[in-house]
Amino acid sequence: MRNRYIQSFQEAQIGKKQVPQFKAGDTLRLGIKIQEGDKTRIQHFEGVCISIRGNGVDRTFTTRKMGANNIGVEKTFPLYSESLENIEVLRIGRVRRAKLYYLRSRRGKAARIRELRK
Predict the structure, then answer these.
(1) How far is 24 from 102, CA to CA, in rounded Å?
(2) Least buried of 7, 77, 78, 100, by fewest C-beta within 10 Å?
């Protein structure tokens, strides 16, 4: 059982932020707020969600994409971070496990994830 003060603080942190339902294997487009001096801009990061962990305010997820020269880029974000402007689910992947760390060793077509058809 949680302390009621901690519970109220966590509810205030989550606030009214709308987060879409997604899981490991889904392709996401994240709008990340970047501050440069006194200006802010939104930079998009598009990749596959390879893991989700934690619960409540502490929930984080890791996304992976292939960058230039086939170098893998992974970023881990707190789900309710202020720097995340929006999360958009582009594709829903059909996977059989919750953590897709095996994608780190795969390249090209071997790293594909089947899309869930509705």
Answers:
(1) 12
(2) 7
Residue written as token pair 């202020």? 82
What's the residue count for the chain?
A: 118
Give the C-alpha separation, 116 to 96, whole Å.
12
Please check whether residue 78 lies inside any domain of the structure. yes
Residue 115 is assigned to a structural domain of this protein: no
Q: Choose among 55, 45, 48, 30: nearest CA to 102.
A: 48
The enclosing domain of 29 has a CATH number of: 2.30.30.790
* Highest mean predicted confidence (pLDDT) among 38-42, 68-72, 105-109: 38-42
Q: Give the pTM.
A: 0.86
Strand, helix or coil at 86? strand
- DSSP strand pairing (84-91 vs 72-78): unpaired
Rounded Cα distance between 40 and 23, Å, is: 29
**Domain that includes residue 81, residue range:** 4-107
User: With pLDDT > 90 as the criterion, what percentage of the chain qualifies?
Assistant: 69
